[in-house]
């Protein structure tokens, strides 16, 4: 995955943003509750994969178009939140992790991902005309003897492959 620097912190973001409406956050007493999150205008907020300086991957939550985000029931307004993967629903986790080939592990009851560097950026099969992100469920089913690897999207397109309709590389 291609990681881009975020100007206001030591985080790097990657992948496409996903709209979310709620987060699982810990309270001051240590209990975990689901909170609704939105921009100041009441719109859903964006979640993107973010990697810190140690290589741990979590989620950067921001308001759309650089708006601040708010948690109405906690009466908090913040420019962004960096949260672990288990703060999102399973469906949103899957959407965010499609373009990434990673290993998930738990560290102090927090779900964190680490990127696996050995895989290429795009994968295709000799028996089809479709290419995938390496983290796509269909890409994992390609047999090793039929696997073709591409470093860039253009390289796959020039070889006559089209993007997969589900993972949308």
What labels would you give this structure?
169 residues, mainly beta, 7-stranded antiparallel β-sheet, 4-stranded mixed β-sheet, 16 strands
Structure report:
- The chain is mainly beta and 169 residues long.
- The chain folds into two domains: 112 residues, no CATH class; 42 residues, no CATH class.
- It contains three helices and 16 strands.
- The strands form four sheets. Strands 1, 2, 6, 7, 10, 11 and 12 form a seven-stranded antiparallel beta sheet that branches. Strands 15-13-14-16 form a four-stranded mixed beta sheet. A three-stranded antiparallel beta sheet has the order 5-8-9, with no helix packed on it.
- The longest helix is centred in the middle third of the chain and has 8 residues.
- The mean pLDDT is 85.
- InterPro entries: Ada-like_dom_sf, Ada_DNA_repair_Zn-bd.
- Keywords: Activator.
- It comes from Aerophobetes bacterium.
Short description:
Keywords: Activator. The chain is mainly β. 11% of the residues lie in helices and 43% in strands.
Number of strands: 16
Note the main sheet: 7 strands, antiparallel
Q: Give the overall silhouette.
A: elongated
H/I helix tally: 3
- Output mean pLDDT: 85
Percent helix range: 10-25%
Q: How many domain modules? A: 2
C-alpha end-to-end distance: 11 Å
Structural class: mainly beta
Oligomeric grouping of the chains: single chain
Order of helices and strands: EEEEEEEEEEHEEEEHEHE
| Poorly predicted runs of 5 or more residues | none
Q: Kindly provide the radius of gyration, computed on alpha-carbon positions and rounded to a whole number of angstroms.
A: 18 Å
**What fraction of residues sit in β-strands?**
35-45%
